[in-house]
Write a structure and sequence with these properties.
alpha+beta; 14 strands; globular; binds (3R)-3-hydroxy-3-methyl-5-(phosphonooxy)pentanoic acid
């Protein structure tokens, strides 16, 4: 695998500057969000992760992005018009516009395009589930589809998804893992050939089939905007007092996670996922300045999950994203039992009675030409 994708894509870009006559005009992809078991937290310039991370891609929580192109007479673009669920949304429209300018060196033909971008989420708007991973994965897939159709490049699916992952990373780091179904690893990792800081690697073929049945039920404790953004959280890791020990811990945990996933060790994996989630939030609390994204209900939910595990011995655990909501992780074999527990014991802690049931998913889909 190429150790320097950026160089390779910049070199290839000289052949992607002039638009051929037979231009495709529209494409649609639907891409899912993902949930990390080993967390990416902290980055270097150019969206290079401070540590490797590992996630599974969801199935139900998706963003559908469609792109329609028209052509500019000179390379003055890219020009972007954006609609979210039918309405204009300048905040995300501006972010997509800025993103397309960042992508332009790798795909200079976008400078000749006016892009009409529409996106919609399958999960409720105010569910507290971040849509940046699914949005940028879907948009990046639309862009590589355009390149493939217009220039006949990226004919090999491995090349196609690798470039999509590279481009998705530039929009939102964790988005690079969402271009693959099943499990994906992002960041150079000892013992994993093909692992890279520039794009994610699909690792499902190295994982015990048991884990492909795993469920993620998201207990929505707070649907509002986060008090401190992930970008700010990553920035605070630069001078974090525990930076070094976190990097060492993540390096060890990624290896442990891969071993447990390979060996089908559900109990070990649940403990590791919880350690990573609590570490992520501990890093937030001990940043300078420190901050808290957990709510009192988050702790109550965690206590109930741990009590349930202690009482039953079942492999039920949790992880947390950069927010207050709790992702409850468990295998399909105990789904009925866990659903009952969620309804009876955890529903009371939700905002608006929302628990979103998701699972390990098959990955993105091209849903339109
Ligand atoms: O991709 P970003 O910049 O939104 O960062 C996401 C970081 C976490 O979701 C907290 C962890 C992860 O690996 O997804």
């Amino acid at each position: 695998m190429n150790a320097n994708l950026q160089k390779e894509y910049l070199a290839a870009a000289v052949n992607l500057a002039a638009l051929p006559a037979h231009a495709v005009t529209a494409v649609t992809w639907s891409a899912p969000s993902n949930i990390a078991l080993v967390k990416y937290w902290g980055k270097k310039p150019g969206q290079i992760p401070a540590n490797p991370s590992l996630s599974f891609t969801l199935e139900a929580s998706r963003t559908k992005v469609s792109v329609e192109c028209s052509y500019l007479s000179r390379a003055t673009g890219p020009t972007v018009e954006y609609y979210f669920e039918g309405g204009s949304n300048s905040r995300f429209g501006d972010r997509f516009g800025k993103y397309l300018n960042e992508v332009a060196p790798y795909m200079p033909f976008v400078r000749l395009l006016r892009l009409l971008i529409r996106s919609e989420n399958t999960f409720p708007h105010s569910s507290g589930i971040a849509s940046s991973a699914s949005s940028f994965a879907a948009l990046a897939l639309c862009l590589v589809s355009l390149e493939r159709e217009l220039f006949g490049t990226l004919a090999d699916d491995g090349d196609f998804f690798r470039k999509a992952s590279f481009l998705a990373r530039l929009g939102s780091g964790s988005a690079c893992r969402s271009v693959y179904g099943g499990f994906a690893l992002w960041g150079v990792t000892a013992g994993i050939d093909g692992s890279s800081d520039e794009a994610a690697l699909a690792v499902t073929d190295r994982i015990h089939p048991h884990f492909l049945t795993w469920r993620d039920s998201v207990v929505i404790i707070s649907a509002g905007q986060k008090a401190v953004s992930s970008s700010e959280g990553h920035r605070l890791m630069h001078r974090h007092p525990f930076r070094r020990s976190r990097l060492a811990q993540a390096g060890v945990n990624i290896g442990r996670a891969m071993d447990m996933l390979r060996g089908g060790e559900a109990d070990g994996l649940v403990n590791l996922a919880e350690e990573e989630a609590l570490t992520l939030h501990a890093l937030m609390m001990t940043s300078r300045p420190g901050y808290l994204l957990m709510k009192p209900e988050t702790l109550r939910v965690i206590e109930h999950i741990r009590a349930m595990r202690a009482d039953t011995g079942l492999p039920v655990g949790f992880t947390l994203d950069a927010g207050a909501n709790v992702h409850v992780l468990y295998p399909a074999a105990i789904e009925d039992r866990v659903r009952l527990f969620l309804e009876k014991e955890l529903m009371v802690f939700t905002e608006n009675g929302q628990i979103i049931h998701d699972r390990v998913g098959k990955g993105p889909e091209k849903t339109g030409v």
